[in-house]
């Protein structure tokens, strides 16, 4: 069965009212997406990530009166632009969605593969990870930068803390690359659940992988702390993250835009010998070694 699709662009303050109107007019679903390129990563529990300008996409059944819908929108008090209407032919939506996700290689040996595909390199380090609600499937440059670092610096025999673990991707990669134990820390209960599930799918069980919120982390110091969150929280958490790294240990930080790198470097340079930033698509990875004295 074909569908009627309507797309329009609106400011954040009008988006919810327009969503309500579209649903009242018979939309089967309304989705929000970023109209520009404004990253929203790791929202706090209960927060709805939202952007300054939004694309609303509404789906209507084939027999819906789209002319009536458009007329109602145009006569509403809520402004919008770029209204477009089109017919979507029916297709296997699940298959189309799955086809968008392919195995991805990071460094020389590390692969992230969706569960419905065979790993391209059976002898590589393969993480089976499906797209989900928790942040972190390897597609974002910040995650890719961290995965490439892990591939180039296998944490063999180390205790690793993945602070802001999201899907658990970095902790699981560290374990697959030889880490002794990993802690996945996140403020979002959904992320902790996703991390546990992904660990089980990758045969990384409770004996080596522990998850907790920040208050549940015991008094440990790690050989390696990875924090792929945002620059603001990284600066605010500098003292706490420093305390988690043993002298001579390493810290890897990402989720940082290029223009934010200096403030994060300043926050951590008092304890760490920081290396120059590594950049990809305007995002930055920072790394450093903790001074022993």
What can you see in these coordinates?
The mean pLDDT is 87. The protein is elongated and about 70 Å long. With 293 residues, it is α/β, with parallel strands linked by helices. The protein folds into two domains: 3-90, Alpha-Beta Plaits, CATH 3.30.70.120; 134-290, 3-Layer(aba) Sandwich (Rossmann fold). It is 28% helix and 31% strand. The strands form three sheets. Strands 8, 9, 10, 11, 12, 13, 14 and 15 form an eight-stranded mixed β-sheet that branches. A four-stranded antiparallel β-sheet has the order 2-3-1-4. The chain has a three-stranded mixed β-sheet with strand order 5-6-7.
Q: In the CATH scheme, what's the topology name of the largest domain?
A: Rossmann fold
Q: What is the overall pLDDT average?
A: 87
- In the CATH hierarchy, the architecture of the largest domain is 3-Layer(aba) Sandwich
Report helical residue fraction.
25-40%
- State the secondary-structure class: alpha/beta
Corresponding CATH superfamily of the largest domain: Vaccinia Virus protein VP39
CATH classification, class level of the largest domain: Alpha Beta
Shape: elongated
Instruction: Compute the separation of the termini in Å.
Output: 69 Å
Number of domains: 2
Q: Which regions have little confidence, pLDDT < 50, spanning 5+ residues?
A: none
Order of helices and strands: EHEEHEHEEEHEHEHEEHHEHEEE
